[in-house]
Amino acid sequence: MTRRTESGDAPSLSRAGAGASQKEREPRDPAERARAICLRLLTGAPRTRQQLTEALRKREIPDPVIDEVLDRFEELRFIDDAAFAGAWVESRHHGRGLARRALARELRTKGVDPAVIEEAVGTLDSEREEATARDLVQRKLRATRGLERDKRLRRLAGMLARKGYPEGMALRVVRQALEAEGHQEEDGWEDSTAWPPPATGQ
């Protein structure tokens, strides 16, 4: 039975030993190490080629080995940036209500090729995007009741702006939602050049 010392070193030594054992179990061949790392990462969640490249570089895998391993993974369809981008667009638009501009920005940060991004976000047409914007505004409309109309307009339009909706669509959708509640169109935003609108206090 392991005795804990007063300084509590026993658990630390145990973890250190476990870490050393794990390192010893890792394949020594760079290609084998790269394959093992990629499979472990892909088991957790889909990844883009760029994400895997960055992970392998952090583990000091040589670039030629990275290219060789990832090329093979693409052949086997373990990596498919187009499928990743398509699934990302569908999931983030449905779950978070993100518009094409925001989705494209997220995919760029994951290293997806611009042409692949354009094709993926192109599956969202303007009609679907506007319908989602209307749903988002309706969900938030009740929470803004009691505020001045100008503040409601700014807050709701700002919410859409942060999700990547274009200025014209955002203002039109919010204005129409407010008008449906019986407000007159006196928002003063038709000729505004400031976008996104400034934040207002909660």
Automatic annotation (TrEMBL):
Ranges where the record places region Disordered: 1-33, 181-202
Comp. bias (Basic and acidic residues): 22-33
Domain of life: Bacteria
Stored HAMAP family: RecX
The RecX third three-helical domain, residue ranges: 129-173
Main location: cytoplasm
Organism encoding this protein: Streptomyces xiamenensis
Keyword Chaperone included in the entry's annotation: no
Protein name, entry field: Regulatory protein RecX
Location of this chain's protein in the cell: Cytoplasm
Domain RecX second three-helical, residue spans: 80-120
Keyword Cytoplasm: yes
InterPro entries, sorted: RecX_HTH_1st, RecX_HTH_2nd, RecX_HTH_3rd, Regulatory_RecX, WH-like_DNA-bd_sf
